[in-house]
């Protein structure tokens, strides 16, 4: 299908891809969080077992996203996108129908391939959009990562109350079925790709060290960081990563081109992406816990889960709008300046609430500034990567960037929860105000480092179709 052959318009591609990104990954990833206690009860499992409903999809997405991006570069992003969407729907249906925890986890793991929508979308955008519009489109896609979490909390209460927790798992399916049909109709075929061989050894080793490392990271707080299983997983991850680096440095067509990762526009964007992921999830943990802390503590608000979710909604909307605006700013001042501005705003939002959190309006103000900053930062790092690599490697490079952002998000989740837990007078007790202050301050410090990276990033990255920075 050539571009426009079915009457599709260029303007419809990015909104469709953004919708697919929300349904296939952002919403489907976050939608189980409000329902974890009910999943535990409904399937007769433990809190740790229910938490694997989130962990299984996180691990699958982390492993699959770079590989899917590479496959999109090799075989064309439209073809791979349609397969990914179909597999994602199958996994979601299996999870929604599951009557036991292993089946639910299997379905969630299969559905995790939906994370590959993002690198495929960046490749499609670069193929079909003119250079002067690429930044705006990439900005919109990047901002979608923060929207799913807010939507999940807003819809969770009414759906659970009226229909039950299983219907939460059907929501992404209801969106993806028409989305799959629309993608087949609207998304154009891409230019022919080179028929390279798949680096299967690299893919297996990559998956192995990632699963070991991320499992240790996500289970460390529950098992204990000195637990032999955690230490063993970390050791295995290090050894397997060494083997993977050796393989990738020797094969002709590696899964991840290590030379590409050394480009200044790529490594600075990847590092900033990890820090931005930390900052996003730090707020996702700290704000709800603070709102729901008992008023008797002297600093909490005694709010409900719904009130905590509504606090996040304006910031998520602001993040989306900022992602759209980032494209216009990118054309005027460049991705480096946009990253600097986004990091500074996120830093300001966290620093403000670290000192001022006595009233809800202060949390709203700080959260709103944080949301705008993250929207700009997310768009900037994606545009830096897209602009720094050849078009034929867009999927692989943005897939790695998305993976690194996921690692940063995991770090933000675990570190912020640890700050709060450590502030309690006794294990499992009520946390103190100091734990929240430390969590907010740590997120501010992380974005200070992101500001430093913005100064190191290329001043003006080339756009699609222009020469990229040499190795």
TrEMBL record:
Q: How does it sit in the membrane?
A: Multi-pass membrane protein
Its name, as the record gives it, is: MFS transporter
Q: Which GO terms describe its molecular function?
A: transmembrane transporter activity
| Cross-referenced InterPro entries | MFS, MFS_dom, MFS_trans_sf
Domain Major facilitator superfamily (MFS) profile: start-end pairs: 14-461
The record's keywords, sorted A to Z, are:
Membrane, Transmembrane, Transmembrane helix, Transport
Task: List the SUPFAM superfamilies.
Answer: MFS general substrate transporter (SSF103473)
Task: Give the source's domain of life in one word.
Answer: Bacteria
Read off the Pfam families from this record.
MFS_1
Compartments in which it is found? Cell membrane
Question: What is the organism of origin for this protein?
Answer: Thermomonospora umbrina
**Keyword Nucleotidyltransferase among UniProt keywords:** no
Q: What is its main location?
A: membrane
Taken from the UniProt entry, a GO cellular component term is: plasma membrane
CDD domains xref list = MFS_MMR_MDR_like
Q: Where are the transmembrane segments?
A: 12-37, 49-68, 80-99, 105-125, 137-155, 167-186, 198-217, 229-247, 267-291, 311-330, 337-355, 367-391, 403-424, 436-457
């Amino acid at each position: 299908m050539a571009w426009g052959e079915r009457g599709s318009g260029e303007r419809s591609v990015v909104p469709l891809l953004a919708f697919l990104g929300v349904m296939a990954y952002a919403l489907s990833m976050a939608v189980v969080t409000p329902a974890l206690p009910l999943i535990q009860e409904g399937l007769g499992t433990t809190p740790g077992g229910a938490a694997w409903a989130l962990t299984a999809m996180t691990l699958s997405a982390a492993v699959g996203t770079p590989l899917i991006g590479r496959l999109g570069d090799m075989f064309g992003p439209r073809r791979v996108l349609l397969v990914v969407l179909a597999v994602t729907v199958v996994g979601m249906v299996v999870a929604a129908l599951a009557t036991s925890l292993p089946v639910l986890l299997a379905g969630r793991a299969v559905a995790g391939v939906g994370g590959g929508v993002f690198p495929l979308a960046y490749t499609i955008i670069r193929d079909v959009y003119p250079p002067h519009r690429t930044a705006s489109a990439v900005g919109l896609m990047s901002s979608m990562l923060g929207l799913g979490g807010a939507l999940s909390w807003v819809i969770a209460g009414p759906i659970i109350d009226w229909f039950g927790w299983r219907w939460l798992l059907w929501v992404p399916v209801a969106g993806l079925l028409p989305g799959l049909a629309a993608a087949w109709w609207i998304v154009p075929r891409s230019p022919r790709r080179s028929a390279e061989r798949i680096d299967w050894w690299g893919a297996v080793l990559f998956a192995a060290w990632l699963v070991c490392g991320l499992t240790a990271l996500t289970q460390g707080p529950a098992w204990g960081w000195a637990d032999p299983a955690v230490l063993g997983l970390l050791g295995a991850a290090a050894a397997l990563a060494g083997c993977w680096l050796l393989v990738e440095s020797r094969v002709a067509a590696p899964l991840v081109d290590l030379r590409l990762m050394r480009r200044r526009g790529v490594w600075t964007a990847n590092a900033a992406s990890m820090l931005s992921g930390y900052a996003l999830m730090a707020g996702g943990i700290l704000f709800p816990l603070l709102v729901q802390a008992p008023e008797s503590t002297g600093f909490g608000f005694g709010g409900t889960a719904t009130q905590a979710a509504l606090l996040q909604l304006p910031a998520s909307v602001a993040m989306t709008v900022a992602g759209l605006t980032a494209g216009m700013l990118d054309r005027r001042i460049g991705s480096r300046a946009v990253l600097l501005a986004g990091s500074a705003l996120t830093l300001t939002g966290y620093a403000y609430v670290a000192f001022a959190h006595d009233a809800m309006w202060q949390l709203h103000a700080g959260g709103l500034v944080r949301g705008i900053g993250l929207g700009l930062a997310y768009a900037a790092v994606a545009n830096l990567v897209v602009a720094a690599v050849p078009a034929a490697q867009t999927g692989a490079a943005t897939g790695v960037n998305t993976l690194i952002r996921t690692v940063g998000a995991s770090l933000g989740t675990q570190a912020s929860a640890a700050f709060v837990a450590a502030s309690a007078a006794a294990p499992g007790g009520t946390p103190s105000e100091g734990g929240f202050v430390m969590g907010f301050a740590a997120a501010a410090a992380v974005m200070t480092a992101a500001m430093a990276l913005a100064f190191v990033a290329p001043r003006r990255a080339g756009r699609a179709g222009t020469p990229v920075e040499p190795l």
